[in-house]
Amino acid sequence: MIFNKEGSTTIITQEKTTIVEFVKGIEKKQDTLKNDNIIVNLFSLKEISVDDLNEFLMISNRHKAARRSFVIVTDKISFDEVLDEITVVPTLQEAYDLVEMEEIERDLDF
């Protein structure tokens, strides 16, 4: 797992572990990441399923409840295929844009 912090956003890149182990690794770091927006980059994965993305549901819900963004980046699954509580975008640029828009909405109390 690679952590790259840019301002108030942390990009977490998946390397060579299973999704379940990856999620457990993020959960272990949740206390240190609780004040950051999180972008999970899954581009290194050759195959990914909707069930794999659903593994992130609890982390996503906790993070969003704390008024922080949680975005998964993959072009293997469309956002239409996943639960509404999980935010999926196909590119890192879209993830950055989405985090920025959500920050503006939070600042304006939307």
Report what the structure shows.
The chain has a five-stranded mixed β-sheet with strand order 1-2-3-4-5. It has four helices and five strands, in the order ββαβααββα. Helix content is 41%, strand content 20%. With 110 residues, the chain is α/β, with parallel strands linked by helices. The model has no long low-confidence stretch (mean pLDDT 91).
Helix and strand arrangement:
Layout: E1 2-6, E2 9-13, H1 19-33, E3 37-41, H2 50-54, H3 57-65, E4 70-73, E5 87-89, H4 92-107
Parallel strand pairs: 2-3, 3-4, 4-5
Antiparallel strand pairs: 1-2
In brief:
The protein is an alpha/beta fold. The chain is 41% helix and 20% strand.
How many DSSP H or I helices?
4
Strand line-up of the largest beta sheet: 1-2-3-4-5
Structural class: alpha/beta
Looking at how many chains there are and whether they match, the oligomeric state comes to single chain
The whole-angstrom Rg is 13 Å
Mean pLDDT, to the nearest integer, reads 91
Work out the helicity level.
40-55%
- What order do the helices and strands follow? EEHEHHEEH
Query: What would the principal axes of the Cα set say about the shape?
Result: globular
- Approximately what portion of the residues adopt beta-strand conformation? 15-25%
Number-wise, the strands total 5
Low-confidence stretches: none
Terminal residue distance: 33 Å
What's the main sheet like?
5 strands, mixed
